[in-house]
Write a structure and sequence with these properties.
There is one protein chain. By secondary structure, the chain is of the alpha+beta class. It has 8 helices and 10 strands. It has helices spanning 18-26, 65-69, 94-98, 118-122, 128-132, 143-157, 198-242, 248-253; strands spanning 4-9, 37-45, 48-56, 75-78, 81-84, 105-107, 110-112, 138-142, 165-167, 177-181. The strands form 4 sheets. It has a 4-stranded mixed sheet.
Amino acid sequence: MARLAMLIDLSRCLGCQACVIACKAGREIPPGERWIEIREVVVGRFPELRGAFVPHRCFHCAEAACVQVCPTRALYKKDGFTVVDFERCTGCGYCAEVCPFGVPRIMDGRVSKCASCLDLVQMGWEPWCVQTCPAGALQCGPREEILTEARTRVAALRDRYPNAQIYGETQMGGLGVILILTEPPEVLGLPPQPQMPPLALWKGGAQPLSLGALVLSVITSGIAFFIARRRHLEENGARKGSEPITPASETRKE
């Protein structure tokens, strides 16, 4: 399957929460959890104020820090989305520490974040959130087609929203969620250029190296032990060979 992506057009979002409810019901998310949040942002200065609704959800980074640090491979990439195998999650919390968007949370001993509706897409359906959006703000499909649609919409929005732009085309290697912004990302609470946190580089790179060094150290210590033991046995053998032998007759006389 081609690399997939979702489109979220903030110029069309009504903040109605339909996607939040559909996601929760469709994915049977436990009480107290939610994989999508809609945040309201007020832009401008009084009296010229403008409002915007910004989704807080997994952005399915191509270069996903959460995937890189997951020690059990419960998080992995598939067809452009960051998928979750909840049975393999141990709740270590590494993913929550390194996500540049602050998305994953640990709930009841396991990660809580969008696991994607890839199973629905593979059956020819749309993700739950896309199915229920009344304003057509959400769309899902091959990533190149989504980017083409995003460019067309942004060009049409420039007269009304001079700062209209695409977010996610290049960030973190290219996001699996492409957003059409009406304001600069920093104004809407999004990092303009999210980076792979140093902790992710350490856990994803230095930790395996440290583990390798530990294994090498154990092997080296084992070899040193056997060499020392062999020398010890050889020295004992040489010592016994150099001791004088007492004749049996002299032993009986004593």
